[in-house]
From TrEMBL, chain B:
Xref: InterPro entries: CT_C_D, Cyclophilin-like_dom_sf, PxpB
Transmembrane region(s): none
Keyword Nucleotide-binding: yes
Top-level taxon of origin: Bacteria
EC number: 3.5.2.9
Organism, scientific name: Belliella calami
Record-given protein name: 5-oxoprolinase subunit PxpB
Record-annotated Carboxyltransferase domain positions: 3-203
Organismal lineage: Bacteria, Pseudomonadati, Bacteroidota, Cytophagia, Cytophagales
Length: 305, 236
Protein backbone atom coordinates (compact mmCIF):
# COMPACT_ATOMS: atom_id res chain seq x y z
CA UNK A 1 0.00 0.00 0.00
CA UNK A 2 1.37 3.37 -0.98
CA UNK A 3 1.25 5.91 1.80
CA UNK A 4 0.75 8.84 -0.57
CA UNK A 5 -2.74 7.54 -1.25
CA UNK A 6 -3.54 7.91 2.41
CA UNK A 7 -6.48 10.25 3.09
CA UNK A 8 -6.46 13.73 4.57
CA UNK A 9 -4.87 14.67 7.86
CA UNK A 10 -8.20 14.87 9.66
CA UNK A 11 -8.92 11.23 8.95
CA UNK A 12 -5.41 10.32 9.99
CA UNK A 13 -6.03 12.01 13.36
CA UNK A 14 -9.10 9.86 13.89
CA UNK A 15 -7.09 6.77 13.16
CA UNK A 16 -4.46 7.80 15.71
CA UNK A 17 -7.13 8.51 18.24
CA UNK A 18 -8.60 5.14 17.56
CA UNK A 19 -5.25 3.37 17.83
CA UNK A 20 -5.67 -0.28 18.69
CA UNK A 21 -3.06 -2.82 19.53
CA UNK A 22 -3.72 -6.31 18.26
CA UNK A 23 -2.00 -9.49 19.35
CA UNK A 24 -0.11 -10.98 16.43
CA UNK A 25 2.53 -13.62 15.84
CA UNK A 26 5.78 -14.06 13.98
CA UNK A 27 5.87 -17.58 12.54
CA UNK A 28 9.27 -19.16 12.07
CA UNK A 29 9.70 -21.25 8.93
CA UNK A 30 13.34 -21.78 9.83
CA UNK A 31 14.78 -21.33 13.31
CA UNK A 32 18.40 -20.51 12.48
CA UNK A 33 21.44 -21.78 14.35
CA UNK A 34 20.92 -20.08 17.70
CA UNK A 35 17.98 -17.71 17.96
CA UNK A 36 16.62 -16.59 21.32
CA UNK A 37 14.58 -13.75 22.78
CA UNK A 38 16.74 -11.45 24.90
CA UNK A 39 16.36 -8.17 26.77
CA UNK A 40 18.65 -6.31 29.16
CA UNK A 41 18.76 -9.33 31.47
CA UNK A 42 17.48 -10.74 34.70
CA UNK A 43 18.84 -8.74 37.61
CA UNK A 44 18.62 -9.19 41.35
CA UNK A 45 18.37 -12.99 41.49
CA UNK A 46 22.06 -13.86 41.78
CA UNK A 47 21.54 -14.83 45.42
CA UNK A 48 19.53 -17.80 44.10
CA UNK A 49 22.21 -18.67 41.57
CA UNK A 50 20.36 -17.15 38.61
CA UNK A 51 22.56 -15.72 35.81
CA UNK A 52 21.83 -12.32 34.24
CA UNK A 53 21.34 -13.64 30.69
CA UNK A 54 20.24 -10.86 28.32
CA UNK A 55 21.58 -9.83 24.91
CA UNK A 56 25.21 -10.81 24.33
CA UNK A 57 25.75 -7.42 22.70
CA UNK A 58 23.80 -4.98 24.87
CA UNK A 59 25.01 -2.03 22.78
CA UNK A 60 23.30 -3.29 19.61
CA UNK A 61 20.14 -4.23 21.53
CA UNK A 62 19.99 -0.67 22.84
CA UNK A 63 20.60 0.82 19.38
CA UNK A 64 17.66 -1.11 17.96
CA UNK A 65 15.35 -0.04 20.76
CA UNK A 66 16.46 3.60 20.46
CA UNK A 67 15.84 3.63 16.70
CA UNK A 68 12.28 2.39 17.26
CA UNK A 69 11.78 4.66 20.30
CA UNK A 70 11.10 1.58 22.39
CA UNK A 71 11.53 1.43 26.12
CA UNK A 72 14.98 0.20 27.05
CA UNK A 73 13.44 -2.92 28.63
CA UNK A 74 11.97 -4.05 25.28
CA UNK A 75 12.93 -7.57 24.19
CA UNK A 76 14.42 -8.35 20.77
CA UNK A 77 15.26 -11.45 18.78
CA UNK A 78 18.94 -12.40 19.08
CA UNK A 79 20.20 -14.33 16.08
CA UNK A 80 23.49 -16.20 16.08
CA UNK A 81 25.50 -18.33 13.66
CA UNK A 82 22.95 -18.65 10.87
CA UNK A 83 19.70 -17.03 9.99
CA UNK A 84 16.06 -17.87 10.51
CA UNK A 85 13.21 -17.03 8.17
CA UNK A 86 9.89 -15.78 9.42
CA UNK A 87 6.49 -14.46 8.42
CA UNK A 88 4.64 -11.64 10.22
CA UNK A 89 0.87 -11.86 10.72
CA UNK A 90 0.20 -8.15 11.12
CA UNK A 91 1.82 -4.76 10.46
CA UNK A 92 4.67 -3.54 12.64
CA UNK A 93 8.09 -1.94 12.27
CA UNK A 94 11.43 -3.65 12.81
CA UNK A 95 15.10 -2.75 12.68
CA UNK A 96 18.27 -4.85 12.60
CA UNK A 97 21.47 -4.03 14.49
CA UNK A 98 24.68 -5.84 15.47
CA UNK A 99 26.40 -8.30 13.13
CA UNK A 100 26.71 -7.68 9.38
CA UNK A 101 24.50 -10.19 7.61
CA UNK A 102 22.34 -10.67 4.53
CA UNK A 103 18.78 -9.66 5.42
CA UNK A 104 15.86 -9.86 2.98
CA UNK A 105 12.42 -8.29 3.27
CA UNK A 106 10.12 -10.06 0.82
CA UNK A 107 13.24 -10.95 -1.14
CA UNK A 108 14.68 -7.42 -1.22
CA UNK A 109 17.89 -6.74 0.71
CA UNK A 110 17.71 -4.38 3.69
CA UNK A 111 20.42 -2.63 5.67
CA UNK A 112 21.37 -2.57 9.34
CA UNK A 113 19.75 0.40 11.06
CA UNK A 114 17.04 0.75 8.40
CA UNK A 115 13.55 0.88 9.88
CA UNK A 116 11.43 -1.55 7.91
CA UNK A 117 7.64 -1.21 7.68
CA UNK A 118 6.15 -4.69 7.81
CA UNK A 119 2.73 -5.44 6.31
CA UNK A 120 0.53 -8.52 6.77
CA UNK A 121 2.22 -11.73 5.65
CA UNK A 122 5.59 -10.07 4.96
CA UNK A 123 8.60 -12.35 5.06
CA UNK A 124 12.00 -11.71 6.60
CA UNK A 125 14.85 -14.01 5.76
CA UNK A 126 18.35 -13.87 7.18
CA UNK A 127 21.16 -15.22 5.00
CA UNK A 128 24.90 -15.34 5.49
CA UNK A 129 26.74 -13.58 8.27
CA UNK A 130 29.68 -11.51 7.01
CA UNK A 131 31.14 -10.22 10.25
CA UNK A 132 30.09 -10.39 13.88
CA UNK A 133 28.34 -13.13 15.83
CA UNK A 134 25.03 -11.68 16.95
CA UNK A 135 22.33 -9.94 14.93
CA UNK A 136 19.40 -8.25 16.69
CA UNK A 137 15.91 -7.74 15.36
CA UNK A 138 14.13 -5.12 17.46
CA UNK A 139 10.39 -4.68 16.92
CA UNK A 140 8.18 -1.71 17.70
CA UNK A 141 7.00 -2.08 21.31
CA UNK A 142 9.22 -5.15 21.84
CA UNK A 143 8.47 -8.87 21.64
CA UNK A 144 5.65 -9.96 23.95
CA UNK A 145 6.98 -13.30 25.19
CA UNK A 146 6.25 -14.34 28.79
CA UNK A 147 8.20 -12.74 31.64
CA UNK A 148 10.07 -15.03 34.03
CA UNK A 149 11.74 -13.50 37.09
CA UNK A 150 11.27 -9.99 35.74
CA UNK A 151 12.83 -10.63 32.33
CA UNK A 152 11.89 -12.03 28.93
CA UNK A 153 15.43 -13.34 28.32
CA UNK A 154 15.47 -17.02 27.47
CA UNK A 155 17.54 -19.28 29.70
CA UNK A 156 17.10 -23.07 30.09
CA UNK A 157 15.27 -24.00 33.28
CA UNK A 158 13.90 -20.49 33.83
CA UNK A 159 11.99 -19.44 30.72
CA UNK A 160 9.54 -21.90 29.14
CA UNK A 161 11.47 -21.74 25.85
CA UNK A 162 15.24 -21.69 25.65
CA UNK A 163 15.99 -21.92 21.95
CA UNK A 164 13.87 -21.13 18.91
CA UNK A 165 12.69 -24.15 16.90
CA UNK A 166 11.23 -24.45 13.43
CA UNK A 167 7.46 -23.93 13.58
CA UNK A 168 7.60 -21.76 16.73
CA UNK A 169 5.62 -18.54 16.93
CA UNK A 170 6.49 -15.42 18.89
CA UNK A 171 3.93 -12.89 20.06
CA UNK A 172 4.00 -9.11 19.47
CA UNK A 173 1.49 -6.28 19.54
CA UNK A 174 0.62 -4.88 16.15
CA UNK A 175 -0.33 -1.25 16.03
CA UNK A 176 -1.84 0.37 12.93
CA UNK A 177 -0.11 3.72 12.80
CA UNK A 178 0.78 6.15 10.10
CA UNK A 179 4.48 6.01 9.32
CA UNK A 180 6.33 7.90 6.68
CA UNK A 181 8.89 5.87 4.81
CA UNK A 182 12.35 6.37 6.19
CA UNK A 183 14.77 7.42 3.50
CA UNK A 184 17.75 8.05 5.72
CA UNK A 185 19.03 5.83 8.48
CA UNK A 186 22.23 5.58 10.47
CA UNK A 187 25.02 3.70 8.69
CA UNK A 188 25.75 0.76 10.97
CA UNK A 189 28.84 -0.93 9.58
CA UNK A 190 30.09 -2.83 12.61
CA UNK A 191 33.26 -0.72 12.75
CA UNK A 192 32.87 -0.26 16.49
CA UNK A 193 33.72 -3.91 17.15
CA UNK A 194 36.57 -4.08 14.65
CA UNK A 195 39.49 -3.18 16.93
CA UNK A 196 41.70 -5.75 18.68
CA UNK A 197 41.83 -3.87 21.97
CA UNK A 198 39.72 -5.17 24.81
CA UNK A 199 39.55 -2.79 27.78
CA UNK A 200 39.93 -4.50 31.14
CA UNK A 201 40.32 -3.84 34.83
CA UNK A 202 42.70 -5.97 36.88
CA UNK A 203 40.87 -8.90 38.46
CA UNK A 204 40.99 -9.85 42.15
CA UNK A 205 43.65 -12.55 41.55
CA UNK A 206 45.83 -10.43 39.21
CA UNK A 207 48.15 -9.74 42.15
CA UNK A 208 48.84 -13.46 42.58
CA UNK A 209 50.30 -13.80 39.06
CA UNK A 210 54.04 -13.67 38.44
CA UNK A 211 55.45 -10.62 36.61
CA UNK A 212 56.12 -12.91 33.68
CA UNK A 213 52.49 -14.05 33.53
CA UNK A 214 51.27 -10.47 33.88
CA UNK A 215 53.40 -9.28 30.99
CA UNK A 216 52.33 -12.24 28.86
CA UNK A 217 48.67 -11.40 29.52
CA UNK A 218 49.19 -7.73 28.67
CA UNK A 219 51.38 -8.14 25.62
CA UNK A 220 50.10 -11.22 23.83
CA UNK A 221 47.32 -11.50 21.30
CA UNK A 222 44.74 -14.20 21.95
CA UNK A 223 42.59 -15.91 19.34
CA UNK A 224 38.85 -16.43 19.83
CA UNK A 225 38.30 -20.20 20.06
CA UNK A 226 35.28 -21.92 18.49
CA UNK A 227 34.62 -23.34 21.98
CA UNK A 228 32.48 -20.32 22.79
CA UNK A 229 28.81 -19.80 23.56
CA UNK A 230 26.44 -17.58 25.52
CA UNK A 231 28.09 -18.73 28.77
CA UNK A 232 31.65 -17.95 27.87
CA UNK A 233 34.25 -17.30 25.19
CA UNK A 234 37.40 -19.37 25.33
CA UNK A 235 40.64 -17.86 24.09
CA UNK A 236 43.33 -19.90 22.40
CA UNK A 237 46.88 -19.68 23.64
CA UNK A 238 48.52 -20.81 26.79
CA UNK A 239 49.50 -18.94 29.90
CA UNK A 240 51.41 -21.37 32.05
CA UNK A 241 49.53 -21.40 35.30
CA UNK A 242 50.75 -22.54 38.70
CA UNK A 243 48.01 -20.70 40.59
CA UNK A 244 45.86 -22.97 42.63
CA UNK A 245 42.09 -22.84 42.30
CA UNK A 246 40.46 -20.30 44.57
CA UNK A 247 37.57 -20.91 46.96
CA UNK A 248 34.37 -20.50 44.95
CA UNK A 249 33.83 -16.74 44.58
CA UNK A 250 31.52 -14.34 42.72
CA UNK A 251 31.99 -13.92 38.97
CA UNK A 252 30.23 -11.63 36.50
CA UNK A 253 29.81 -11.38 32.75
CA UNK A 254 33.19 -10.04 31.62
CA UNK A 255 35.22 -11.88 34.27
CA UNK A 256 38.30 -13.48 32.69
CA UNK A 257 39.23 -16.77 34.35
CA UNK A 258 42.57 -18.56 34.08
CA UNK A 259 42.00 -22.33 34.12
CA UNK A 260 44.45 -24.89 35.58
CA UNK A 261 45.47 -25.87 32.03
CA UNK A 262 46.39 -22.25 31.26
CA UNK A 263 43.38 -21.36 29.11
CA UNK A 264 41.58 -18.05 29.39
CA UNK A 265 37.78 -17.98 29.55
CA UNK A 266 35.84 -14.73 29.22
CA UNK A 267 32.55 -15.28 31.03
CA UNK A 268 29.54 -14.00 29.11
CA UNK A 269 25.86 -13.23 29.79
CA UNK A 270 24.64 -16.74 30.68
CA UNK A 271 27.62 -17.48 32.96
CA UNK A 272 27.03 -18.95 36.40
CA UNK A 273 27.19 -16.51 39.31
CA UNK A 274 30.19 -18.05 41.10
CA UNK A 275 33.38 -19.75 39.96
CA UNK A 276 36.51 -21.36 41.31
CA UNK A 277 39.19 -20.32 38.80
CA UNK A 278 41.44 -17.32 39.45
CA UNK A 279 39.91 -14.10 38.07
CA UNK A 280 42.66 -12.22 36.26
CA UNK A 281 40.68 -9.49 34.45
CA UNK A 282 37.27 -7.87 34.37
CA UNK A 283 36.13 -6.44 31.02
CA UNK A 284 34.55 -2.99 30.84
CA UNK A 285 30.86 -2.98 29.85
CA UNK A 286 31.57 -1.95 26.27
CA UNK A 287 34.44 -4.48 25.98
CA UNK A 288 31.92 -7.28 26.71
CA UNK A 289 29.80 -6.08 23.78
CA UNK A 290 32.87 -5.87 21.52
CA UNK A 291 34.22 -9.32 22.35
CA UNK A 292 30.73 -10.85 21.94
CA UNK A 293 30.83 -9.83 18.26
CA UNK A 294 34.32 -11.25 17.54
CA UNK A 295 34.38 -14.13 15.09
CA UNK A 296 36.21 -17.38 15.74
CA UNK A 297 39.87 -16.97 14.89
CA UNK A 298 39.89 -13.18 15.37
CA UNK A 299 42.60 -11.83 17.66
CA UNK A 300 42.19 -9.71 20.75
CA UNK A 301 44.62 -7.94 23.05
CA UNK A 302 43.91 -6.83 26.59
CA UNK A 303 44.52 -3.25 27.57
CA UNK A 304 44.33 -2.31 31.23
CA UNK A 305 42.32 0.83 32.01
CA UNK B 1 39.30 -11.68 61.37
CA UNK B 2 41.30 -9.87 58.74
CA UNK B 3 39.32 -8.53 55.81
CA UNK B 4 40.37 -6.79 52.64
CA UNK B 5 38.47 -5.18 49.82
CA UNK B 6 39.10 -4.93 46.10
CA UNK B 7 37.49 -2.81 43.40
CA UNK B 8 36.57 -5.15 40.53
CA UNK B 9 34.88 -2.52 38.36
CA UNK B 10 34.05 1.14 39.04
CA UNK B 11 30.68 -0.01 40.42
CA UNK B 12 31.62 -3.42 41.91
CA UNK B 13 33.55 -3.94 45.15
CA UNK B 14 34.51 -7.26 46.66
CA UNK B 15 35.28 -7.98 50.30
CA UNK B 16 37.61 -10.92 51.03
CA UNK B 17 38.04 -12.95 54.18
CA UNK B 18 40.96 -15.36 54.86
CA UNK B 19 40.98 -18.34 52.54
CA UNK B 20 38.95 -20.84 54.50
CA UNK B 21 35.43 -22.23 54.73
CA UNK B 22 34.00 -21.37 58.12
CA UNK B 23 30.80 -20.51 59.96
CA UNK B 24 32.52 -17.43 61.35
CA UNK B 25 32.95 -15.99 57.84
CA UNK B 26 29.36 -16.94 57.00
CA UNK B 27 28.10 -15.05 60.07
CA UNK B 28 30.13 -11.99 59.01
CA UNK B 29 28.73 -12.19 55.47
CA UNK B 30 25.15 -12.44 56.73
CA UNK B 31 25.64 -9.38 58.95
CA UNK B 32 27.24 -7.40 56.11
CA UNK B 33 24.57 -8.37 53.59
CA UNK B 34 21.80 -7.54 56.00
CA UNK B 35 23.34 -4.19 56.89
CA UNK B 36 24.00 -3.20 53.27
CA UNK B 37 20.46 -4.10 52.23
CA UNK B 38 18.89 -2.24 55.15
CA UNK B 39 21.05 0.86 55.23
CA UNK B 40 22.30 1.24 51.65
CA UNK B 41 19.47 -0.47 49.78
CA UNK B 42 18.98 2.63 47.63
CA UNK B 43 22.40 2.31 46.00
CA UNK B 44 23.17 -1.43 46.35
CA UNK B 45 21.69 -3.35 43.42
CA UNK B 46 22.96 -6.84 44.17
CA UNK B 47 25.18 -8.84 46.51
CA UNK B 48 26.97 -12.03 45.46
CA UNK B 49 28.57 -14.38 47.95
CA UNK B 50 31.32 -16.99 47.79
CA UNK B 51 32.95 -19.02 50.56
CA UNK B 52 35.29 -16.22 51.61
CA UNK B 53 34.08 -13.31 49.50
CA UNK B 54 31.15 -10.96 49.12
CA UNK B 55 30.79 -8.62 46.17
CA UNK B 56 28.55 -5.58 46.00
CA UNK B 57 27.14 -4.14 42.79
CA UNK B 58 26.29 -0.44 43.14
CA UNK B 59 23.89 1.51 40.95
CA UNK B 60 26.72 3.82 39.90
CA UNK B 61 30.50 4.17 40.08
CA UNK B 62 31.52 4.32 43.69
CA UNK B 63 34.00 6.94 44.92
CA UNK B 64 36.77 6.18 47.40
CA UNK B 65 35.27 8.51 50.02
CA UNK B 66 31.81 6.89 49.77
CA UNK B 67 33.27 3.42 50.09
CA UNK B 68 35.51 4.29 53.03
CA UNK B 69 32.42 5.42 54.96
CA UNK B 70 30.56 2.17 54.18
CA UNK B 71 33.64 0.06 54.90
CA UNK B 72 34.06 1.76 58.24
CA UNK B 73 30.43 1.07 59.12
CA UNK B 74 30.80 -2.60 58.20
CA UNK B 75 33.99 -3.03 60.20
CA UNK B 76 32.32 -1.60 63.26
CA UNK B 77 29.18 -3.71 63.13
CA UNK B 78 28.50 -5.39 66.43
CA UNK B 79 29.23 -9.09 66.29
CA UNK B 80 27.02 -10.13 69.15
CA UNK B 81 23.72 -9.50 67.38
CA UNK B 82 22.34 -12.66 65.84
CA UNK B 83 20.04 -11.69 62.97
CA UNK B 84 19.19 -15.13 61.90
CA UNK B 85 17.89 -18.37 63.34
CA UNK B 86 18.90 -21.11 60.92
CA UNK B 87 16.31 -23.71 59.95
CA UNK B 88 17.03 -27.38 59.24
CA UNK B 89 15.32 -28.66 56.08
CA UNK B 90 14.74 -32.41 55.76
CA UNK B 91 15.22 -33.57 52.21
CA UNK B 92 13.97 -37.08 51.28
CA UNK B 93 16.46 -39.00 49.13
CA UNK B 94 16.10 -42.37 47.44
CA UNK B 95 19.55 -43.94 47.33
CA UNK B 96 18.39 -47.04 45.45
CA UNK B 97 18.60 -48.39 41.92
CA UNK B 98 18.61 -45.99 38.98
CA UNK B 99 18.42 -42.99 41.35
CA UNK B 100 21.92 -43.62 42.70
CA UNK B 101 23.68 -44.69 39.51
CA UNK B 102 27.19 -44.18 40.91
CA UNK B 103 26.45 -45.49 44.41
CA UNK B 104 27.98 -48.96 44.06
CA UNK B 105 31.16 -47.77 42.38
CA UNK B 106 31.65 -45.02 44.90
CA UNK B 107 31.00 -47.33 47.88
CA UNK B 108 33.47 -49.84 46.45
CA UNK B 109 36.18 -47.20 45.94
CA UNK B 110 35.63 -45.98 49.51
CA UNK B 111 35.66 -49.57 50.86
CA UNK B 112 32.26 -48.99 52.43
CA UNK B 113 29.02 -50.90 52.16
CA UNK B 114 26.14 -49.05 50.50
CA UNK B 115 24.32 -48.78 53.80
CA UNK B 116 27.42 -47.38 55.53
CA UNK B 117 27.73 -44.76 52.80
CA UNK B 118 24.03 -43.85 53.11
CA UNK B 119 24.44 -43.62 56.89
CA UNK B 120 27.49 -41.32 56.60
CA UNK B 121 25.75 -39.14 54.02
CA UNK B 122 22.38 -38.80 55.77
CA UNK B 123 23.51 -38.49 59.39
CA UNK B 124 25.06 -35.03 59.00
CA UNK B 125 23.55 -31.58 58.78
CA UNK B 126 24.99 -29.58 55.89
CA UNK B 127 25.32 -25.81 56.05
CA UNK B 128 24.09 -23.86 53.02
CA UNK B 129 26.86 -21.36 52.25
CA UNK B 130 25.45 -19.85 49.03
CA UNK B 131 23.81 -20.62 45.69
CA UNK B 132 25.88 -20.95 42.50
CA UNK B 133 26.77 -23.18 39.54
CA UNK B 134 23.09 -23.56 38.52
CA UNK B 135 19.98 -21.64 39.54
CA UNK B 136 19.03 -23.12 42.91
CA UNK B 137 22.23 -25.17 43.33
CA UNK B 138 23.34 -25.12 46.97
CA UNK B 139 26.98 -24.99 48.02
CA UNK B 140 26.85 -27.19 51.12
CA UNK B 141 29.59 -27.54 53.71
CA UNK B 142 30.18 -30.39 56.15
CA UNK B 143 30.60 -33.57 54.09
CA UNK B 144 32.27 -36.35 56.10
CA UNK B 145 35.95 -36.53 55.01
CA UNK B 146 35.46 -40.30 54.47
CA UNK B 147 33.22 -39.40 51.53
CA UNK B 148 35.51 -36.87 49.84
CA UNK B 149 36.12 -38.12 46.29
CA UNK B 150 37.68 -36.52 43.22
CA UNK B 151 35.29 -35.52 40.44
CA UNK B 152 34.93 -37.80 37.44
CA UNK B 153 37.62 -37.15 34.84
CA UNK B 154 34.97 -37.11 32.11
CA UNK B 155 31.80 -35.32 33.18
CA UNK B 156 28.40 -36.94 32.47
CA UNK B 157 26.49 -35.15 29.73
CA UNK B 158 23.21 -35.15 31.60
CA UNK B 159 22.59 -35.48 35.30
CA UNK B 160 18.83 -35.41 36.00
CA UNK B 161 17.21 -32.75 38.15
CA UNK B 162 17.02 -33.79 41.81
CA UNK B 163 20.17 -35.92 41.69
CA UNK B 164 22.09 -35.95 44.96
CA UNK B 165 25.80 -36.18 44.31
CA UNK B 166 29.27 -36.04 45.81
CA UNK B 167 32.16 -34.15 44.22
CA UNK B 168 35.46 -33.21 45.83
CA UNK B 169 34.78 -32.19 49.42
CA UNK B 170 31.17 -31.31 48.77
CA UNK B 171 27.75 -32.82 48.39
CA UNK B 172 24.91 -31.17 46.51
CA UNK B 173 21.62 -31.53 44.67
CA UNK B 174 21.34 -30.84 40.94
CA UNK B 175 18.51 -28.29 40.92
CA UNK B 176 17.96 -28.79 37.17
CA UNK B 177 19.13 -31.15 34.42
CA UNK B 178 22.77 -30.37 33.76
CA UNK B 179 26.06 -31.86 32.66
CA UNK B 180 28.21 -32.59 35.68
CA UNK B 181 31.21 -34.46 37.03
CA UNK B 182 29.96 -35.48 40.46
CA UNK B 183 29.14 -39.02 41.64
CA UNK B 184 25.37 -39.47 41.80
CA UNK B 185 24.34 -41.38 44.94
CA UNK B 186 20.60 -40.72 45.02
CA UNK B 187 17.72 -38.53 43.99
CA UNK B 188 15.15 -36.36 45.75
CA UNK B 189 11.63 -36.01 44.32
CA UNK B 190 11.53 -32.39 45.57
CA UNK B 191 11.83 -29.39 43.26
CA UNK B 192 14.52 -27.16 44.71
CA UNK B 193 14.22 -24.31 42.24
CA UNK B 194 10.91 -22.97 40.95
CA UNK B 195 11.19 -19.85 38.77
CA UNK B 196 7.42 -19.30 39.06
CA UNK B 197 7.64 -18.60 42.80
CA UNK B 198 8.51 -15.14 44.18
CA UNK B 199 11.26 -16.81 46.23
CA UNK B 200 12.38 -19.64 43.94
CA UNK B 201 14.34 -21.64 46.52
CA UNK B 202 13.55 -23.39 49.79
CA UNK B 203 16.50 -22.69 52.06
CA UNK B 204 18.32 -19.46 52.85
CA UNK B 205 22.03 -18.86 53.17
CA UNK B 206 23.05 -20.13 56.62
CA UNK B 207 20.23 -22.72 56.87
CA UNK B 208 20.93 -26.45 57.14
CA UNK B 209 20.03 -29.33 54.87
CA UNK B 210 19.66 -32.87 56.15
CA UNK B 211 18.97 -35.87 53.96
CA UNK B 212 16.83 -38.83 55.02
CA UNK B 213 16.46 -42.11 53.24
CA UNK B 214 13.27 -43.10 51.42
CA UNK B 215 12.59 -46.11 49.19
CA UNK B 216 11.34 -46.15 45.61
CA UNK B 217 7.67 -46.45 46.65
CA UNK B 218 7.98 -43.43 48.93
CA UNK B 219 9.72 -41.56 46.11
CA UNK B 220 6.71 -42.17 43.88
CA UNK B 221 4.23 -41.29 46.59
CA UNK B 222 6.00 -37.98 47.38
CA UNK B 223 6.17 -37.21 43.65
CA UNK B 224 2.38 -37.72 43.46
CA UNK B 225 1.79 -35.54 46.52
CA UNK B 226 3.90 -32.82 44.90
CA UNK B 227 1.84 -33.02 41.72
CA UNK B 228 -1.37 -32.81 43.74
CA UNK B 229 0.06 -29.88 45.69
CA UNK B 230 -0.34 -31.46 49.11
CA UNK B 231 3.24 -32.24 50.08
CA UNK B 232 4.55 -30.50 53.17
CA UNK B 233 8.28 -29.97 53.39
CA UNK B 234 9.66 -30.88 56.81
CA UNK B 235 11.83 -28.44 58.66
CA UNK B 236 12.78 -27.59 62.19
Amino acid sequence: MSLSLFPTSSLRAIMNWNMLKTTAYIHFLKAGGLSTVQDQGRFGFAEYGVPYSGAMDQFSLMQGNVLLRNQKEAAALEIGISGPSMVFEMPTRIVFTGALAEIFHNGKPIQLGQIVNIACDDEIKIGKFFRGQWLYMALEGGLETPIFMESRSWYPGISSQSRLKKGDSICYLSEEKYHSDHFSHPKLDGSWFKGKEIEVYKGPEWKDLTLEQQSLLMNSEFKISPVSNRMGIQLEGNVSNQLKEILTSPVYPGTVQLTPSGKLIVLMRDAQVTGGYPRVFQLSDQAINIISQKNFGEKVKFSII
Amino acid sequence: MEKRFFQIQPNVLEINWPEEISDEILQDQLRYKNYLEQHHGDCVLEIRIGFNSLSVLFDQDIKKEQWSIIWNELENLKTDIQHFEPKVFKIPVCYQGEYGVDMENLAKSKKLSVSELVELHSSKKYRLFFYGFLPGFMYLGGLDPKLHSPRKSTPDLMIPKGSVAIGGRQTGIYSMDSPGGWHVVGRTPLTLFDPQKPIPTIAKQGDFIQFYQIDQDEFKSISNQLLAGNYELEYA
